[in-house]
Amino acid sequence: MKKLVTLFIISFSLFTFSQGRKEIGNDFIKTLFIEKNAVKAHSYFDPSIAGEIKAADLTAVTEQIKENLGSFKNILEVNNEKDSYYYYSEFDKSKLDMLITFNGSDKIIGFVFVPHKIFDKADDKTFLKIKSDDIGLNGTLLVPEQDNKKKLVIFVHGSGAQDRDESVGENKPFKDIAEALFKNGIASYRYDKRIYSYPETFTEQSTVEQETISDAVNAAAYFKNNERFKGYQVIILGHSLGAYLMPEIAKKANASKYIFMAGNARPLQDLIIEQLEYIRKVDPSKVPEQLLETTKKQVSLLNSDKFSLTIPTSELPMGLSAAYWSYLMKYNPLDEVKNIKAPMFFAQGGRDYQVTEKDFSLWKNQLKNNKNVVFHLYPSLNHLFIKGSGVPAPKNYEIKGNVDQEFLNDLIQFVLK
After folding, report:
1. Helices 405-416 and 173-183 sit at what angle, rounded to 10 degrees?
2. Residue closest to 348 by CA, chosen among 227, 263, 236, 276
3. Coil, helix or strand at residue 78
4. Which residue ranges traverse the bilayer (predicted)?
């Protein structure tokens, strides 16, 4: 998926809610994208920041958005958190939120494009918030009322600020899987990742323990200790980073089964270079040569004797801190996975250029004598387990699809076994 341009985000001390903001935002979007009147749209901004962004800049943004996403079609829904309004908008190729922030005078002080944020409705009976350490995980719980198989699957995301559906553009792999499980009598819980809901909690000292592991373990503990789910098998499904960290999660979660979807077995820094080189080969515009060379230098430093906890984040890959990388440098999933005694299911897409068959083969070789493990390779599936053809490339994620039925059938069979 092409990287969306961020126009600007400016933080202000905000004041109380004022009527009419929803309509003001609607008018601003209509003026900018339908009337294509950037000068008029510019007048919606507060004078304190209007000098920082020109009407010509607004025009440039709309042109770039059109190039990436196609023409603006309409606003699907509007949600707000205090002074920030999320206009869920449809374009020809995708859907996303236009986030508009107002000040006390109902003038715009922030305008940015972001992935669609899910807002739980007060009457939504599937909403469940689980306490995890000092935060609350906002999630969706699906429990079949009929033909309930007494099995519950917990979803663990890949890297980055992922929502509960693990949305990539209009693709929602976790939602697809959860609904397929539900139709087959299997309960599930999927939650918004903490760095999605509470990005401010992720600091220079944070590691994958805070990003992923603790929340997965706490979610499992919640259901195992909840009287309503007494007698259920709790199963953990991890995708990408979530699968990579599964051996560490398993140490504390003590689940009945574990599902590894496109989990890397090799160090994360090795995959970064491999991914960038591949993307530059198939679409050079996505990865400038300077970015590739800079990342190679950062990875080289990370792998050298010079790496220490005092190295600035700016000198390390992916904008991640030394504390984050230090944790991963000490982690070896291939060693840890041997300690898992519960049944395991490994799935890999043949068109996945982010995590490849190299990793799948490493897992398979490491567990070749374990009779409780099953491996499935799906030649035509990508990293999201959506079927495709041709040369795999980032643009594939812009195409709306659904998780493959053959994979879903194998997954359901494993869960029910």
Report:
1. 50
2. 263
3. strand
4. none
Q: What is the pLDDT of residues 128-154, one digit of tens each?
A: 999 999 999 999 999 999 999 999 999
Torsion sign across C-alpha atoms 252, 253, 255, 261: negative
Decide the pairing of beta strands 233-239 and 257-261.
Answer: parallel
CB atoms inside a 10 Å sphere around CB 416: 13
Of 381, 409, 417, 406, nearest in space to 239 by CA: 381
Q: Across-strand partners of 87? A: 78, 98
Q: Using one digit for the tens of pLDDT, what is the confidence trace for 282-327?
A: 999 889 999 999 999 999 999 999 999 999 999 999 999 999 999 9
Matching residue, tokens 């900018």: 32
Q: What are the CA-CA distances from residue 296 to residues 269, 271, 309, 380 (Å)?
A: 9, 11, 19, 30
The helix (H) or strand (E) run that includes residue 128 is strand 127-132
* pTM reported for the whole predicted model: 0.80
H-helix or E-strand spanning residue 217: helix 214-224
Q: Which SS3 state, helix, strand or coil, does residue 97 take?
A: strand
How far, CA to CA in Å, does 159 sit from each of 70, 121, 319, 320, 395?
Answer: 27, 27, 13, 12, 19
Separation CA 95–CA 30 (nearest Å) = 16
Residue 352, pLDDT > 70, answer yes
pLDDT score of 123: 63
Half-sphere exposure of 54 (CA within 13 A, CB side): 3
For residue 274, what is the enclosing H or E element?
A: helix 268-282
